[in-house]
Amino acid sequence: MKVAAELSAQRWTFLLRVRRISGFLLVGILLIVVANVVAGFVQLFTGRQVPVMLDLAREANLPTWYTSVLTILAGALTALVGKVEKARGGPHLLHWWGLTLTMTWISIDEMLTFHELGDELVPSWMIEPFGAWIHVHPWVIIGLPLVVLFAIVYLPFLRSVPARTRKWMVAGGAVYVTGALGGESLHGMINTYHGGGVLTSLVVLFEESIEMVGIVMFIHGLLSHLTGRNGTFSLHLHA
User: Fold this and answer.
1) pLDDT tens digits for 63-99?
2) pTM for the whole structure
3) Assigned domain for 41 exists
4) How many structural domains comprise the chain?
């Protein structure tokens, strides 16, 4: 990330560019994906397992930690935007605080996988119409209507924010949901009808990586909202 720093007596001013920050976060995703692809090829040709700390298919490791950090960053930014909008007398403050709580919950869930507890809450009569594959991740049956309800509740809010902010927020949310719900569903189908293997690994790679990309897109929208057309903001540190 390119940072221009100006040093005075006891004060440092950093000019941060939104595109540089987003690019920096995307590089982190790229490194995780490349590490998994390389480890996957090593496993395919040598039989050595992918290191647990790098495996996208596992929890409580580096990819999970990175996703959690991205999400809590998004939550902090929504709180900051909410504070700015409150000072301006802007509307829909509860929606901004709601986004902060949502992002914080998702971040915690990434580390502790609370959503998988939903597998035990789904009754059999809801599972049966979907076929055997849904038994892998039955929580998506609950997740989909919750996403639809969330979208309906936030529709007036999205109409009120600037078009540029709305574009990035909606696109980022859609990409994230595609990975979280669509990817999990696809993973369930392939795992049920074809078993494990390279195809399952590719689906997991797709699922986890686009979740992270979606969060970065959301963050980009929030940063753009804070900076406006200028695309930069100042960070002042005092000794």
Assistant:
1) 999 999 999 999 999 999 999 999 988 889 999 999 9
2) 0.87
3) no
4) 1
